[in-house]
Specification:
The protein is an alpha+beta fold. It has helices at 55-58, 69-76, 87-100, 103-119, 124-145, 149-161, 190-199, 229-234; strands spanning 8-11, 15-25, 34-41, 47-51.
Amino acid sequence: MKFKKGDTVIYPQHGACKVEAIRKEDPLNTGKQQEYLVLRTVIGDMTLRVPMSKVDEVGVRPPVSPDELEDLVAVLAKADPRVPSNWSRRFKNHQEKLKSGDVYQVAEVVRNLAARNRDASLSAAERTMYERARVNLISEIAPALKVTTDEAEVYLDEALAKGVLKPVKAAKPAKAAAPKVEAPKVESDDDDLDDDLDEKPAAPVAKAAPAKKAAPAKKATAPKPVADEAEKAEAPAKKAPAKKAVAKKPAKD
């Protein structure tokens, strides 16, 4: 790849850079000069020197085109990315993605850490990585869209808002139920009750009616002895008295 002064290139882990010069130098005082690509970062104003013989090895490349930004947004807008739960594995995985210099892998780091930051606070190391990845991605979006870094940051946040940072819709408030009318509660106080009982006169006790004297019991009559059947048989039967004969008067001639 050929470079010229004023070109915008992407340097892994540093984002977009401007080519300031291509010249021979001996910065390490080895006694041998070699050709260097002198770069200045767009964000941070840092100067970088890359030997021309190692440009491809380092991963210096041109920024993405406007057409490739659609694929970039698709990566950023993924709603539920799978991220290792183990901190050391997750950090190492993201670090390798950033070193690759691939814009889509950098976008994955931004998306994953944004999702992680939404669910739980990031550690200090991951927060630094997240901010660094955002800067790199913003610096690459800006020249592709030919906009300022502030406008590129808005573009990035809007892409994230389609996925992991999508605002949750507020639930509709439930209709308020009609208030229930409750009967007034009568509060009882033991002390008040005792006072009331002391103040109120006792109700008069009704006198019981005198009990009626019981009627004297009738003397029981001894049962008449019943004669034996044999005695009855032996007793002579009483004869009915004979009727007196009435003298008939003689008939007259």
